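#struct-queue
[09:14] JT: dropping the first one here, sequence first, then the structure tokens:
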Amino acid sequence: MKQKLLFSITILFFFTTGFAQQNTHNTTGSAINSTVLLLMYDKNNQPLPPGSGFVIDKNIVATNFHIVENSISGYAILNGNMPKFSITGIIKKNERLDLALLYVEGLEVPKVKPGDSSKVEIGDIVYAIGNPTGLKGKSSPGIISGVVDLRSSFLDLKKDTMLQITAPIPPVCSGGPVINVYGEVIGVAVTIIKEDINFNFAIPIAYLEALSGNIKEHVFTFNKSSRSHPSLLSLNWSKSLREAVTGTNFKFDTNLNSGFYFFTVHNNLNKPVKNIKCQVIFYNADQLPIETEHVVIEDIIGPKLAKRTEELGRARRGEVRDLTFWTEIRILSFEIAD
């Protein structure tokens, strides 16, 4: 009898687990298929930290403004590593709310289903959707943990509110959709760091809908931020994502004929990080890039600690060394190692 009961419980467990997994897939599948990886490049055609976005209409992608800030070109990659779609430019933006609409040529996929951000309640289940690699979309479950009134917060952004969520949002998934259990988008994902603690938010979809109204055709520009308004990422935050992990102390090997080099990566957070992707850019005296190298540091770096890289570069890079006037260590992405 006990064996039969145990067998029944086991069957019920697997059935329930399988049903839950299938139900989650049904909820997130449509949003994942409409979510893109955004690869942006600066004026020197060097990569900027990647992010995510999602299709809200034919050829139109919504994302965070900070992902496309200071870029002059870029590509969008759909789930499944389909061909890259060229980003023509920024149609509309709201720097203060960290929102941007992009025109992506030839991107004709089903748009996301919008929800009503005014009806969300604390405790509601949500999923943060991202496309961190372009190969496979990712969904992270969580709940609405708070509705932050920015008028009474240290941000002081007039009447705006933000939805605080518990779903983890890696930096590369910032700009992706946050959906409810019905698969409806209720916000745009963004991670903000304050006093070494990362807060995960959803910018209410209502603000995005207001931004997307009255879109004028053929108004496509890539330009630098004027920063005429305080931004969610800049006003009174002690650290932004760009300051969470930094690279410093670049040094060439003492052998003058060697192209080997070292640098130090600093984890400025109160949590360990890993899989840090860096872009080392070598500039000449005219401030033009003459060489780049992609470096991945897989090791875990503890909170408030730093790690010096192993010997990097190639021994036959003396000509690059001779022409290098200064270097930049650009952190493209990292993971929290919980």
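[09:21] JT: and here's the second one, same format:
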Amino acid sequence: MFVKDSSVGEMIVSIVYVDDIVITRVDFNEINKLKDSLATEFEIKDLESLKYFLGMEVARSKKGIVVSQRKYILDLLKETVMMGCRPAETPIDPKKNMEVKRKVI
């Protein structure tokens, strides 16, 4: 993660993982300046708004940002042939007394 303050007093955040980079900032002009600077040194592909990063799905709304691993979970269920399985509310009866009975030896 790289954080830099700009000349206009705003912060730009870059997250780098191997060959993936996420850039975030309020001012799009500063983002474009950084992308142009990177493009002079590296071959880059701009995917516009972030949808997936490191297997996580990213969704934006007026309320904020939601990060989930729904796709990963669905792929895992398919791989383990468990797509048709029904979820259990709890793995054990919540009324079951889990007290341990001990005996003195």
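[09:30] RK: nice, looked through the second one.
[09:31] RK: The CA atoms of residues 52 and 90 lie 31 Å apart.
[09:31] JT: good to know. The chain has two helices and six strands.
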